[in-house]
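Translate sequence into structure tokens.
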Amino acid sequence: MKATIERATLLRCLSHVQSVVERRNTIPILSNVLLEAAADGMLKVMATDLDLQVVESLSAVSVESPGAITVSAHLLFDIARKLPDGSQVSLEAADNRMVVKSGRSRFSLPTLPRDDFPVIVEGDLPTSFEISAKALAELIDRTRFAISTEETRYYLNGIFLHVTDDELKAAATDGHRLARFTIPRPDGADGMPDVIVPRKAVAELRKLLDEALDTNVEIDLSASKIRFTLGGENGVVLTSKLIDGTFPDYSRVIPTGNDKLLKLDPKSFFEGVDRVATIATEKTRAVKMGLDRDKVTLSVTSPDNGTAAEELPADYSADGFEIGFNANYLKDILSQIDGDTVELHLADAGAPTLIRQDAKSPALYVLMPMRV
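Result follows.
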């Protein structure tokens, strides 16, 4: 195989695929990226960790001899990063080595044969629909902070996608908080199986979406695999295995009878929580909210660091009471609210609280209180 590529093109592509490759691998081939040069001048670059696979096609300056080889992903990425701007990179594979040349630089890297490289078998992906990259990015941003990192409850380690009559819903929860985002159901998504997209696939997809925000993303899926195609024919294709588990019926934890309504400015609420939480320690992450007519008093008490309190104006006319929340969880949710007001629908100090911008907002959050 021998091909020449613009350094900027190669670098952009390698930055997409190399992040899928784990830094430590017990299987050597999984540290490598597969490079496949075709006679039509296209170079295909592929990386996988056996659960997630990214394939990107790019135009080479020239392909002198077609072929395929695998080489260390992180090594090739680091080399491309350090080569001068505007240069061209020549990749030539022969005798179990790959020679990388650019200007006066020359690297000879060990390779492994193409036939050893594992490929995820997609099988049949019966559900297929398109969604704008912008909508998909927002769907991820509004929910992914609530994905659980607890390995024992592996079925919570991703974003749950499911359809109802006319909506596509995305949900994530770690047992302490729930985030749900709703968009109109795309054409072709009816009859779609309920799926859980793993955390790593969500993170890689979100990075790719940043460069394709004005395009559409094609989504194909079955009950066990999902494929995202960005940028059409010669774009990036991300294929992931889905989490094999059952996501809990989260609708049961969304409170419907919370009759105490508190309205605040989300920005000053966020900043107030952030200020009083300065003195909180790992043990006392709770911020206490004292609700009174038209005001909220935020306070934190730490045995080591003393106390902090701040009063905020608010729209509240129900009976006064106190409730505690994890300060970081509360800030995570507040940072997702774009408008001038945030609504907290409360019941009592021990019941989950519903948080949203307003009744029409596609995003909805539920936060469990803490004892304070």
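Note: The CA atoms of residues 263 and 343 lie 5 Å apart.
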